[in-house]
Amino acid sequence: MVEWATDMWSQHLEPVEPLKKGRRTILVPKSLKASKYSKCDDTSSLRAAIKDTIGGDVLGVDIFWDTKHTRDYARRTLSAVLGVEVPEHTDAGQPAVMVTDELTLQISVRPIGAWGGPLAVSEDIENYEERLQTAVTARADQIASALGQSSVPTIAMVEIKGKKSFTGRQRANDPKFAIKVGLSRTARWSQCVTEALPPAPAKPGQKPPKSDSNQEKLLRGWHDLLRQLGVRTTVLAVRPAATIAEPPAYLAFWLIRQNQQRYSGITRQVPVAVLIDPTGRDIRACAPGTGWLPLAQAQHAISARHMLSDQKRSPDEITRFFQQALSQVVNIHPSSLLLTCAQNLRWGWPFLNHPNFRPDVVQFGESITPISDFPGLRHVRVRTWERDEVPEAFAFNDDEEGHSAAYWPSSNRTFISTGDKPMSATSSVKGASKIVPGWRDRVLKDPNPKVMAWNHRGDCIMRPGFCAGSDSREDAEHGGTEEVQRRAA
């Protein structure tokens, strides 16, 4: 395909040279994956890590279900994650208590009932935005009143109807946002999932699927709840390089931006900063008016202050918040890495727009500051697959072709990254093609893929600045035989 495109467009386009696979490593990939709770096979170690994170001996777990098969998926996956037996049903206010050496679990399993039904949007309220806000607030108040304040840290898995149940004029009746706000008011962290149907039986003569996508979905749901708590089982595996003598703290900026009032009646632009210490175990976040709080508590504080009222902010206000957060962090940590996402932030921080972007400086409004004025700071700007702004990719070497999890230096300031297959695509093959013949059993056969394929969209990573005294040459030195070709999306 690349050869065909090159011939067809030779008068207009010139192909770039294949990129070489990067070899420099700061965060050790294998150790990084092993330290994630999703890769932890030792449930006792995970329970101990949860105890350390929440600062107590008791964790509450709620399962609010709408269909029995989703309930059973949630129960089985929770048992696999935490290593305890989960009951089929519990009475309201009477959770089952599971005692382990590391942690006591208070588990509730009950139907979601009317909470999962459409919001009651009153046509008597003339103002459309007020009508939606009233419906959301009423459902959130109903949930908070029924459950009451949780006395222990509690995570909740909630089954809701999918988007297909709330299309067109019914979109405003979707209760998801109200459910999450209501649970947050009771000091619960929530994750919503849609119905998990059991897999269809294999047809005669066919092998059953290698993986169950619904089981993976529920597992990811529990892992997300642990992420909301800020759980890590080990410290970050950092391998300092010559120019990064001290492991950095990690600062990320994000903009919660909702401009479409048709869903909740609310317009908001809420800037958020997340700070992870060099070990990866202490995670904090802040937003305007909340101050720096542990990640779990920060989510409730941000929800209470910002999620049910209009929060319109200008780019100047957003930029000012980011400037204050950055100044606070560099005054505390001698080495820090700032991570920004171009698609998410460039409206609120115009400096991140590509035409405005300049290396080795940080610009807030009209003020342009050399990055050396922020001691120990490095800044990485990321552009992701969002809005189709990066191409799909494939890689090849002497032995195989397909996708490759790696980074590919495009210059000493720009890198392309490609990720490994996600859990939902574990059964997909690496080099399936509908165009290119392939060798099977030493025979060259025409393309005839019969299994799921997966294409990764690469991320464009630009490293715009370094702290004083750093040297970019080490990142320009790379080796390896594997090459990547970029294909226009």
In terms of topology, how is this protein built?
Layout: H1 2-8, E1 19-20, H2 29-34, H3 43-54, E2 58-65, H4 68-82, E3 96-99, E4 104-111, H5 128-147, E5 154-159, H6 176-185, E6 188-193, H7 213-229, E7 249-258, E8 268-276, E9 283-286, E10 293-294, H8 295-306, H9 315-332, E11 336-341, H10 342-345, E12 361-364, E13 367-370, E14 377-383, E15 392-396, E16 401-402, E17 406-409, E18 414-418, E19 438-440, E20 443-445, E21 459-465, H11 473-476, E22 483-487
Parallel strand pairs: 2-4, 2-5, 5-6, 7-11, 11-14
Antiparallel strand pairs: 1-22, 3-4, 7-8, 8-9, 9-10, 12-13, 14-21, 15-16, 15-22, 17-18, 18-21, 19-20
**How many whole angstroms does the radius of gyration measure?**
25 Å
Number of domains: 2
CATH class of the largest domain: Alpha Beta
Structural class: alpha+beta
What is the chains' assembly state? single chain
Spatially, the strands of the biggest sheet line up as 10-9-8-7-11-14-21-18-17
CATH fold type of the largest domain: Nucleotidyltransferase, domain 5
General shape: globular
Indicate the low-confidence ranges by residue numbers: 466-489
Q: What would CATH call the architecture of the largest domain?
A: 2-Layer Sandwich
Global mean pLDDT: 82
| Biggest sheet record | 9 strands, mixed
Distance between the termini: 13 Å
Q: What proportion of the residues form beta strands (DSSP E)?
A: 15-25%
Alpha plus pi helix count:
11
Q: State the helical fraction.
A: 25-40%
Number of strands: 22
